[in-house]
């Protein structure tokens, strides 16, 4: 099912998934799944740094603040109409976490998925994030 957040972000949600939308956040999950995607929305504020730098700094601050043990270096790449940064790690209580930062000026979408352990559900999460399209 095609969905839209605040008239600027389209995304594809699998039929068995639910979306709970707030003004500045969005929760996506499968009621019989293992975890959930939590998404926060930001606007680019600093035009002195490149978008790549801004999303890298945002991800690093999140990782440091939450004491996440990253499994490997974060990956940054550009796709048509968006820039994506992602990585996986483990929280202090041992939960698996994947984070994505998807951006197109002037918007930044910060998403995390957490579950007790890495599962096949992560492929569905990746497909949801890959479906993000900014509509401006």
Give a written overview of the molecule.
The structure is a single chain. By secondary structure, the chain is an alpha+beta fold. It has one domain (2-110, 123-134): Mog1/PsbP, alpha/beta/alpha sandwich (Protein Transport Mog1p, Chain A, 3-Layer(aba) Sandwich). The protein is built from 2 helices and 11 strands; from the N terminus they run E-E-E-E-E-H-E-E-E-E-E-H-E. The strands form 2 sheets. Strands 3, 4, 5, 6, 7, 8, 9 and 10 form an 8-stranded antiparallel beta sheet that branches. The protein has a 3-stranded antiparallel beta sheet with strand order 1-2-11, covered by helices on one side. Strand 7 and strand 8 (82-90) form a beta hairpin.
Annotation field: number of helices: 2
Radius of gyration: 14 Å
State the name of the first-level CATH class. Answer: Alpha Beta
Average pLDDT across residues? 95
Number of strand elements: 11
Q: Sheet with the most strands? A: 8 strands, antiparallel
Provide the CATH topology: Protein Transport Mog1p, Chain A
Catalogue the unreliable spans: none
- End-to-end separation: 21 Å
| Architecture per CATH nomenclature, i.e. the level-2 architecture | 3-Layer(aba) Sandwich
Class inferred from helices and paired strands: alpha+beta
Percent range for helical residues? 10-25%
Question: What's the overall geometry?
Answer: globular
Oligomer: single chain
| Helix/strand order, N-terminal first | EEEEEHEEEEEHE
The overall number of domains is 1
């Amino acid at each position: 099912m095609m969905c839209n957040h605040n008239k600027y972000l389209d995304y594809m949600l699998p039929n068995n998934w639910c979306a709970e939308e707030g003004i500045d956040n969005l929760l996506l999950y499968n009621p019989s799944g293992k975890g959930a995607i939590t998404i926060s929305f930001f606007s680019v504020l600093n035009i002195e740094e490149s978008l790549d730098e801004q999303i890298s700094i945002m991800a690093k601050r999140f990782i440091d603040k939450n004491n996440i043990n990253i499994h490997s270096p974060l990956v940054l790449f550009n796709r048509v109409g968006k820039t994506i940064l992602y990585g996986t790690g483990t929280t202090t209580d041992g939960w698996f976490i994947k984070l994505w930062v998807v951006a197109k000026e002037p918007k930044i979408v910060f998403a995390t998925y957490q579950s007790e352990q890495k599962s096949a559900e992560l492929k569905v999460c990746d497909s949801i994030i890959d479906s993000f399209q900014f509509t401006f």
